[in-house]
Specification:
This protein is of the alpha+beta class. It contains twelve helices and ten strands. The chain has an eight-stranded antiparallel β-barrel, surrounded by four helices. Pfam families: AsnC_trans_reg, HTH_AsnC-type.
Length: about 325
């Protein structure tokens, strides 16, 4: 697999800071031409399945989030995972542990209830076990991205691109739903396309985008195969932590470059993390030399990730074999 160069990494970092930054602005910061940035962006999309997605902060959207762990027989697990990936109420669908375990984030709201966990999953005869973990607090993930996406720009370049965010405490308006749906498909959709999706004028869309970004209600994420950034080994870590030390351990883990997601949850394990490491040896070193030094972690279960079928945004188009452009880039 080809690795990305400094311009590619700088572009990814820039898009993580501001998913709607213009090519000309990014080019000026990186010291290259606008045409170069446009070509690199299109190549990353076409060849490596990269996309920028705009997402509403879950709490502000009135959502509750669950981590669901499902096990199924080897010949049904992939079809089940694909079915889960097609649902609008799931994100982050992964096949793990030899291809028999599926892990997904389930988003629920007061208006929709919880049909997946309460109705649909119990009716699936191919599922052999289920556990659901309510996400109590995310230490990393969402607006706080994996550091592997943030190693392409200098401090000065970051300051040139970073948006000023003044956090608020209001909930996202119901009228923003169509806008967020469109941004979830393509965070860089034009104002004209977003106007068509919302029924607003382009000027109204621009004002609303600026308002949502300025308060942190809207953030952007870059979806790309982490192997292109040097992380070829993924694993989900399920930890049981002494309750009195849970917040301290979660805060510490959120500073580890190896982790893309860290969250406190309910259940027999109360801290979950997603590790991205250069290779199996690097994962072993991380588990033994970094996590192993934290005495408050009483137990640790490591589940290797075999395939990601869905990330933060809606499911991407698949070919007849069920693969997305990102899968083919692996």
């Amino acid at each position: 697999m080809c690795m990305l160069d400094e311009i590619d990494r700088g572009l990814i970092h820039a898009l993580q800071l501001d998913g709607r930054a213009s090519f000309s602005r990014i080019a000026e910061v990186l010291g290259v031409s606008t045409q170069t940035i446009a070509r690199r962006y299109q190549r990353l999309r076409a060849d490596h399945g990269m996309r920028v997605v705009g997402l509403g902060e879950p709490h502000r959207a009135g959502q509750t989030r669950w981590l669901a762990r499902l096990t199924a027989s080897p010949h049904t697990a992939q079809d089940l995972a694909l079915a889960l990936a097609r649902r609008a109420d799931t994100s982050w669908v992964k096949l793990a542990s030899g291809g028999t375990e599926i892990v997904t984030i389930v988003d629920t709201g007061a208006a929709t209830g919880n049909p997946l966990l309460l109705h649909d999953i119990p009716r699936a005869t191919s599922i052999t076990s289920v556990s659901a973990h309510y996400i109590l607090h995310a230490y990393r993930g969402g607006p706080t991205p994996w550091p592997g996406h943030l190693k392409g720009l200098t401090e000065h370049q970051q300051q040139q691109l970073a948006l000023e965010v003044v956090p608020g405490d209001r909930l996202l308006a119901a009228t923003d739903r169509d806008l967020l749906t469109a941004l979830g498909r393509d965070g860089r959709a034009s104002l004209t396309d977003l106007a068509a999706a919302t029924g607003w004028s382009p000027a109204t869309v621009a004002r609303r985008l600026a308002a949502l970004q300025s308060t942190g209600e809207l953030f952007f994420d870059v979806e790309i195969n982490p192997a292109l950034l040097g992380a070829t080994t993924e694993a989900l870590l399920w930890m049981a932590v002494t309750p009195a030390h849970l917040d301290a351990v979660g805060t510490t883990l959120a500073q580890h470059d190896e982790l893309a997601f860290v969250a406190a949850t309910t259940g027999p394990t109360n801290l979950m993390a997603h590790a991205l490491c250069a290779d199996p040896g690097a994962l072993h070193h991380y588990l033994t030399h970094r996590l192993g030094t934290l005495d408050a972690i009483r137990t640790l279960e490591t589940a290797p990730v075999l395939r990601t079928l869905k990330a933060a945004g809606p499911q991407q188009p698949r070919d007849k074999a069920g693969f997305t452009p990102r899968d083919k880039a692996r």
